[in-house]
Amino acid sequence: MNRSVCFVFAILALTLNIHAQQALFHQDVTWSPDGKYIAFCGMHDFDQTAHTFKADIYVMLADGSGLKKISSDEKNEFYTAWANDRIYFGVETPGTKDSNIYSARPDGTDLRQVTNSKGKNSTPAISRDGKRIAFVSTRDVGKYQIYTANADGSAVKRLTTDSAIGYFNPQFSPNGKRILYYAEKGDGKDQVWVMNADGSSPTLLTNDIGHNIFPGWSADGREIIFASSKRDKKTDGSYIDESYLYVMNADGSNLRKLGNIQSFFARFSPDGKHIAYVSGKFPSTNIFVANVDGSGSQQITQQ
Fold first, then answer.
1. Distance in angstroms (rounded) separating the CA atoms of residues 247 and 224
2. From CA 82, how far away is CA 285, in angstroms rounded?
3. Which residue from 252, 255, 245 is spatially nearest to 294, judged by alpha carbons?
4. Highest-confidence range of 90-94, 192-196, 240-244, by mean pLDDT?
5. Does residue 249 contact residue 270 with C-beta atoms inside 8 Å?
6. Which one of 124, 126, 133, 157 counts the least CB within 10 Å of its CB?
């Protein structure tokens, strides 16, 4: 399946007979640097007839309390990243073909535009020091490519060069020297890769096995968590329903399933003691927090 980063879940919505319901599809999850808060994108009000939906950015305490929407009502906002005192996310005006990356304070104030180009600009990631941003864009070619820039959007550099491949979910390593991502060739077997922060030395980590998406670093950079499907059985089901969490060393070794957690998106906490992940079936999912070994899972949102 060719997944546009911004519209992947919207496409699924349009295949279902869903009309303006209140279910919230938690699309991603991001810890605040101090581990006290969680931000996420929530999609809702899918309407098959009008081909519309709404996506917003929310912030809550790490126990699920104090939930607050921080984005506007007029536009759709997707995929969160949090560095220092700012949250970054993609912003798209409904009915247009372009999107750009913005940042705001955790309460939604001081909104600033970071990228300013044609095409879709999405899935921002911020280096731990808050100085660099990595993101994907279709500004040069039809498929998403990975770019980096200064945190204010200046000095943009394209890192990937194969226009036949779609690249997604870039993530800076904790020391800022490497970027984790996954690549889509159109064969239904997305794979996790890592490269140097200048785009050199791309290295395959998942051995061309399974369908692997949304990788993320551990706090110390020694491990990688990601969602994977099509490993244990052949299935034509949605990766939302069929993905499970896996962990491996940063070089791809010591791959193991994380308990039996069914999830398509997960992130380590900043202190390395917990994971937050999204689980459920479209169009209603929830966010859970568990110990780093997958035990002690608790649902922190209520659907």
1. 6
2. 22
3. 245
4. 192-196
5. no
6. 157
- The residue assigned the tokens 């791959």 is 255
CA 50 to chain centre: 26
Q: How far apart are the first and last CA of the chain?
A: 28
For the chain, which domains are there?
A: 8-299 (2.120.10.30)
pLDDT digits (tens, 9 = 90+) for 143-186: 999 999 999 999 999 999 999 999 999 999 999 999 999 999 99
The answer to whether 204 and 191 are in contact (CB under 8 A) is yes
Mean of pLDDT values over 195-211:
97
Collapsing DSSP to helix, strand or coil, 11 comes out as helix
Contact 31, 51 (CB under 8 A): no
Per-residue pLDDT tens for 96-145? 889 999 999 999 999 999 999 999 999 999 999 999 999 999 999 999 99
Choose among 32, 38, 72, 37: nearest CA to 56. 72
Q: Which pair of structure tokens corresponds to residue 228?
A: 């994977």
Angle at 125 between CA 123 and CA 131, to 5 degrees: 140
Contacts of 187 (CB under 8 A, 6+ apart): none
Strands 132-137 and 121-126: antiparallel
